[in-house]
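Homework help board

Subject: predicted structure for assignment chain

Our instructor gave us this sequence and asked us to write out the predicted structure in token form, then describe one feature. I got the tokens but I'm not sure how to describe them. Can anyone check?
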Amino acid sequence: MGVLTATRPERDCAGRARSAGSFVVILGVLAAAFAVTAHIVPRSTRGPGQEEAAGAPVAPAAVRTVSHSVVYELLGAHGARNVTYAAAGSALAQQAEVATPWATQFTRVGPAGRTEFYSVAARNPGPGALRCRIVVDGVVVAEKTETEPGRLFSCAV
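My token output:
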């Protein structure tokens, strides 16, 4: 009588070989990804390390400022209602009703080269014309006339 012995099929061994091979490939890909990342990521994001010697502190460049004299005017025979304008610091100011001629003046200070916004709006109580003007540094930069009573209009730059 013979003794039966169990043998494993060959495909199991081959399956293990494939599994081990896949594991080695995945491990190699992860190692390569780590190596590439280590060279691409800047040193400052890798955590604490040796700090570079600090140079002289850099002072911010002085920003040149300019000031503009601004005058808003409303001219007409019957006053104006709902007057709204962009004042100093670009804050909005409002007045429910004003007598004409009406004017307000302020100085706006800001960085040189920045485009400034100027605006005045009013409702013409009528009859007759209501005119608005914006004068910046002595120069009329916007002017408009409204003749229709009750109509809201504006001058803006």
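Reply (TA_rk): Your tokens look well-formed. For the description, you could write something like this. The longest helix spans residues 10-40. That's the kind of observation they're looking for.
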